[in-house]
Specification:
Blueprint (H helix, E strand, L loop, with lengths): L4 H37 L2 H21 L4 H19 L1
């Protein structure tokens, strides 16, 4: 356990940041799952709307460091490809 005041404060900060990061990671996973569910239904309009709402969330989490930028780009690319495949 932390022995100094600064170490105790660091432990408190680390715990609150861990909880915030976990919440934001969960949000990203949720929007990705919603987009994939819309794609799975085969409705192009719904899939396009879900993708459009997922992209800013994914980008925001990449900017904050919750997701690696390449992982964010990979998610967006794959979702976009799946939405485009529905159109044709």
């Amino acid at each position: 356990m932390a022995n100094t005041a600064s170490a105790r404060k660091r432990a408190r900060q680390a715990e609150s940041r861990r909880q915030q990061n976990a919440s934001q990671r969960s949000l990203v996973r949720t929007v990705i799952k919603k987009a994939q569910a819309a794609i799975g239904k085969g409705d192009y309009e719904a899939a396009q709307a879900a993708y459009a709402s997922a992209v800013p969330v994914i980008d925001r989490m990449a900017d904050k460091g919750i997701l690696h930028k390449n992982k964010a780009a990979r998610h967006k690319s794959r979702l976009n490809a799946q939405v485009a495949a529905l159109k044709s």
